[in-house]
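hey
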């Protein structure tokens, strides 16, 4: 059976769920955070070492300012109220993306990373203001700047995920079949699961079913 070391998730459908259930996109984002906590617990139970969550893309700045502010407020409250709990569980918190938020959020992100930096049971990587195309362009520029040979090995050194293994599998909820500028390099050989359920409706049974399905897949990586 295939071991699962790293799961990446595009948490899609919060806004649609909120409009459908509560007539409020904000309500969907709040419900989605509850799902995040459930999935973290299941990831620990499955002894998976890396969980990467796509929380906010470089394209998401096009959304209404009130919605963006609400999202970041949710994140601030989560870090304030939950980071000590994650730390006690030996969980490491890491952010990839460009940290150009408010001083309060930037400081909370840095503090959370620092506080949990030595933990090793699970690493949660939050992709925040992240875009894979930007990441790749910056990596190529750094290769050129440092006069490194253009090789796959050297390029990886300049990716924001340089110390994280590539995902074994990607899950995208929300009945949408695209990668949306997420980990385009890192997902080259990942198994991809598109889930019809909106993120707030995604549960531990759905998650474990995908993990068990992945474990049974024959993975060839180009061979027979």
């Amino acid at each position: 059976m295939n071991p699962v070391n790293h799961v990446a998730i595009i948490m899609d459908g919060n806004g649609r769920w909120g409009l459908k259930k509560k007539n409020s996109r904000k309500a969907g984002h709040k419900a989605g955070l509850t799902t995040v906590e459930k999935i973290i617990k299941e990831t620990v139970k499955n002894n998976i070492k890396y969980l990467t969550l796509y929380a906010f893309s470089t394209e998401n700045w096009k959304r209404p300012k009130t919605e963006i502010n609400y999202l970041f407020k949710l994140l601030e409250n989560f870090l304030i109220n939950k980071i000590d709990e994650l730390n006690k569980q030996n969980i490491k918190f890491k952010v990839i993306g460009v940290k150009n938020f408010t001083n309060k959020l930037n400081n909370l992100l840095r503090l959370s990373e620092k506080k949990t930096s030595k933990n090793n049971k699970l690493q949660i990587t939050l992709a925040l203001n992240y875009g894979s195309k930007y990441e790749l362009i910056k990596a190529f520029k750094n290769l050129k700047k440092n006069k490194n040979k253009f090789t796959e090995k050297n390029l990886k050194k300049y990716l924001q995920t340089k110390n994280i293994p590539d995902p074994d599998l990607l899950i995208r909820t929300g009945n949408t079949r695209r990668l949306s500028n997420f980990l385009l390099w890192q997902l080259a050989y990942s198994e991809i699961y598109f889930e019809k359920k909106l993120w707030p409706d995604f549960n531990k049974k759905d998650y474990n079913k995908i993990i068990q399905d992945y474990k049974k897949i024959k993975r060839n990586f180009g061979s027979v």
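The mean pLDDT is 96. The chain has one domain: 6-130+166-216.
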